[in-house]
Amino acid sequence: MQTFNVILMLFAAVSAQQPNYEGYQVLSAIPENDSHLKLLKDLNVKDGLDFLKISTRFETPAEFLVPRDQIENVFERLSINGLKYNIISSNVAEDLKKSFQLRNDEPRVFGLDKYNTFEDILSGLDDLLLKCPSSASCVLEDIGLTPENKPIRLFKIVKPSQRKIVWFDSAIHAREWLAPATNLKLLDAILSQEDPNAVSLLNKYDFYFLIIMNPDGYSFSWESPDNRLWRKNRTPNPGSVCRGTDLNRNFDVNWMNDGTSTEPCSDVFGGSSAASETETQNVQNYLRSIGSRVIALTSIHSTAQMILLPYGHTDSNEECAIPADHEKQLAAGNAFADAIENTYDTIWERGTGCSTICK
Ligand SMILES: *[C@@H]1O[C@H](CO)[C@@H](O)[C@H](O)[C@H]1NC(C)=O
């Protein structure tokens, strides 16, 4: 009996930490009216479905995972609301296994046109040092180590004169592999100096690239198909079988205000206290040390087409908090979004995190 209990408990612990995606489906649905948007929001917030792509506007597709035991219920609610959907994966476990198999068959070398393991990214950064333009210096700097002793490594392109800094980080969310892939392309574009815009930017600013902000989580998401959709870091949470904190809900500023969970098993768990996590502390302390020189900071994600500006929380009147320089930030965000839209013919939302996602 005792053994049986222990086995059951172990099983519960393992399954709570790592969902097994057997029989899960991924649906894509394009909202066309307000009741569709409300249903999508309910599925995300109330039902806790895992959204790979969020949609907060008409004609923009949402993609979400549906566990096997909720499929009938979800199908029914979608059809009651007249929300049309496509099944883009009818068995997530199978599809993940296949994509891991394909990657395992490929040679493990760093490449700018593919996804790369954490180790390959580190060696790729070493290679990129060799591409440093002669007018600047390129430097690697570790701003700290993770709990699993992996470096949180910056690639800096600098000149001696302590210029203003443009910062790009990525992979705070482990599973968003497209974000570091994109960030590496940006880094390469600045280093290559083939585009006149890149040349003029480097003549003016220092650039700091943090390609992998969450090395433990990112590495974990590469380990097996079951880990592929891991989002948080990997720190154990005392008193819970679930690991990990959502690092971008763990910073000091307005910690635990809106859209953040106190439940360690949640994908949006904000941590046991403000900046409780080693990764958060390292990045936060480093940014404070260079703070007055940072002229632009962009965190790249890959879950929606949005330019999200500060802030994400509501103020004491339950209104979205707006910083004093909002208009300036919005103008920059609009320029950014317009340029992408004009190049790729896509639609990008713009606004504070609060007004864009939460309202
Ligand atoms: C939303 O659109 C669907 C599909 O066209 C329709 O069945 C439904 O009645 C609409 N809901 C509202 C509230 O307009």
Topology:
Blueprint: H1 2-17, E1 25-29, H2 34-45, E2 50-53, E3 62-66, H3 71-80, E4 85-89, H4 92-105, H5 118-129, E5 137-145, E6 151-158, E7 165-170, H6 178-192, H7 196-204, E8 206-210, H8 215-223, H9 278-290, E9 294-300, E10 306-309, H10 326-344, E11 349-352, H11 353-358
Parallel strand pairs: 7-8, 7-9, 10-11
Antiparallel strand pairs: 1-3, 1-4, 2-3, 5-6, 6-8
Bound molecules: 2-acetamido-2-deoxy-beta-D-glucopyranose (NAG).
What's a concise summary of this model?
With 359 residues, this protein is an alpha/beta fold. It has helices at residues 2-17, 34-45, 71-80, 92-105, 118-129, 178-192, 196-204, 215-223, 278-290, 326-344, 353-358, and strands spanning 25-29, 50-53, 62-66, 85-89, 137-145, 151-158, 165-170, 206-210, 294-300, 306-309, 349-352. The site of 2-acetamido-2-deoxy-beta-D-glucopyranose has 5 residues, from helix 2.
Structural commentary:
This protein has 359 residues and is of the alpha/beta class. Among the domains are: 21-92, 2-Layer Sandwich (Alpha-Beta Plaits); 109-218 and 277-303, Aminopeptidase (3-Layer(aba) Sandwich), CATH 3.40.630.10. The protein contains 11 helices and 11 strands. The protein has a 5-stranded mixed sheet with strand order 5-6-8-7-9. The chain has a 4-stranded antiparallel sheet with strand order 2-3-1-4, covered by helices on one side. α6 (178-192) packs across α7 (196-204). Bound molecules: 2-acetamido-2-deoxy-beta-D-glucopyranose (NAG). 2-acetamido-2-deoxy-beta-D-glucopyranose is lined by residues 32-33, 35-36, 82. One of its GO terms (molecular function) is metallocarboxypeptidase activity. This is DgyrCDS3209. Keywords: Carboxypeptidase, Disulfide bond, Hydrolase, Metal-binding, Metalloprotease, Protease, Signal, Zinc. Residues 1-16 form the signal peptide.
